[in-house]
Amino acid sequence: MDFCAERIKTIESDIRGKNYYTALDFESKGIKVLKLNTGNPATFGFGMPDSVRAALMENPDRAVGYSDPRGAATARQAILDYHLSTGIKDITLDDVFIGNGVSEIGSILSTVLFNPGDEILLPMPTYSLWSMQTELSGAKTVYYKCDEQNGWNPDIDHIKSLVTPKTKCMVVINPNNPTGVVYSEEILKEIAEIARQNNIIVLSDEIYDRLVFEGKKHIPFATVAPDVPVITMSGLSKSHCLCGFRCGWMVLSGNEKVRSEIREGIMKVVAIRLSANAIMETIIPAAIKDTEYTKAMLKEGGRLYEQRKAAWAALDKIEGLSYVKNDAAFYIFPRVKAGLDSDKKFVRELLLEKKILLVPGTGFLQQDNDHFRIILLPEANELNWAINEIGDFLKNYNSKRGV
Ligand SMILES: Cc1ncc(COP(=O)(O)O)c(C=O)c1O
To answer: Is this prediction's pTM over 0.85?
Structure first.
């Protein structure tokens, strides 16, 4: 790779990497593979919300030109109203920016904020967008433990022990991918206090904020830390199953001095790419208004509800696995009780033998090698079949290595 920049040499995606291309290769030969590598609901038959279809047809001509680099004003207004309604205070239209997915927002933010040598606190496990963007920028990744024994909540003492004068930003993913858990208000307040004491900017990835099951509540980080510089991110990929529309956004809040500096930096960077996809921006107001689409998936009888139930029931029957029940999103992050020599090897062999594609825990920077992520998007019966197959594979895998 001598022609490529140094910075991409260590970049590797376990979500869309070698195993994914092997799966495509199987499929090109007519071999069916159950691809549980990406949280992409449309590939499991989750259709476009009717509200979005109607908005899309309404006046596509207005999206033919570039839009405002910050995002179309009507769409930004809908986003602003949404976040005001969730309790974030003192934000205006100037604080809202739209991007081509939270993925592009991550790239914009790392360009604007991360200097080589800065330390960026990231959860472990983390969604790899954040580890890879940090690495690309030359900043240093510093991982804080999320404690499986404590419902995968961030370990506050561990975070405190990692803070140094070089700590610039902290990423919080709540609800979390890959664990599917929602953090309590108490935990968020403790994280906010660390950020406050140490002048840390919090990047709060809340893309699953509306995908929370009954009995749990998502608390936007910015609401517990109105004085701390926080960048809240969300979008429509998950709540409205519109991954392909590439719709994400960010909202700046907290300390006005820091906020205005970051705002200016973002204005420079978003101008480089002229604008986000304008057609996606036309449907944002209708989608945000349509809360029913999301709620219907989460309530009893709804697909996400029933699929989660089926997954838990199937997992409960596998002796060799333990798992923390997910409160949100459509992920679960089981642990192989006996441990694994290599989670990558386990996932690879599962793909080759059972034609089921998972992502190993180390793909989320979980360093103990004992985990993998399952996506709870297939219909309940298919999910039940897949988890039984994984259980069967694990049993043979363990017996072959004398466990
Ligand atoms: C935590 C998290 N953040 C961001 C993204 C990317 O979202 P988008 O489709 O908006 O780029 C994902 C996608 O799975 C995710 O899980």
So the answer is: yes
